[in-house]
Design the sequence.
């Protein structure tokens, strides 16, 4: 319900999905009456999420494993599903089209929107060892002297498309054949903290100069 440029994030996501003319059905999974009300107002169907799937401990795998059979029971005949996280507000219609096209044109299970991440577990991300001392998170046999020489790593942004049949069989989103669809980092900004919301507000107010 947080607003960006005067619009709740959930509304921004629903409008993006509707304006893309890609989807047969747009569904919001929530247990919150206020989110349900505003989502219906802007044209989304509501799938009421049970309380045990609305906690911080619930995984997206579990949410989808609960939701998809219910959608299929309601005469929704679909082969693929796109999860559109409303906290990634600068993703475009073309990004969604590219994500879905990659799923349809390749022999893969899942496609996910990503951007190249300069924070790298082979070079500048560390974790404590058993004694509390820091060590590089991932090691390779050869020494990596600069970040540019480290293997490319991507940041997931919570937007993915997947094959429903394969998901129901394997019961996990990121299946063995998962492919990245890369976008620029400015469009992949995720709002997970108040600080990131402030960054998003700055981007929204300076969009003409930044995109």
Sequence:
């Amino acid at each position: 319900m947080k607003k960006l440029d005067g619009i709740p994030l959930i509304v921004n996501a629903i409008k993006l999905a509707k304006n893309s003319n890609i989807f047969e059905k747009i569904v919001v999974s929530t247990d919150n009456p206020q989110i349900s009300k505003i989502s219906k107002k802007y044209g989304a169907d509501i799938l009421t999420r049970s309380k045990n799937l609305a906690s911080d401990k619930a995984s997206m795998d579990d949410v989808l494993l609960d939701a998809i059979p219910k959608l299929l029971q309601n005469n929704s005949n679909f082969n693929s599903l796109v999860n559109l996280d409303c906290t990634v507000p600068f993703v475009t219609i073309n990004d969604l089209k590219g994500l879905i096209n990659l799923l349809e044109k390749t022999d893969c299970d899942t496609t996910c929107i990503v951007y190249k991440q300069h924070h790298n577990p082979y070079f500048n991300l560390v974790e404590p060892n058993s004694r509390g001392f820091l060590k590089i998170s991932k090691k390779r046999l050869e020494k990596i002297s600069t970040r540019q020489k480290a293997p490319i790593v991507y940041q997931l942004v919570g937007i993915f498309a997947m094959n429903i049949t394969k998901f129901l069989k394997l019961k996990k989103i990121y299946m063995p054949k998962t492919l990245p669809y890369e976008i620029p980092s400015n469009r992949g900004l995720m709002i997970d903290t108040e600080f990131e919301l402030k960054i998003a507000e700055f981007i929204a107010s300076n969009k003409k100069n930044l995109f």
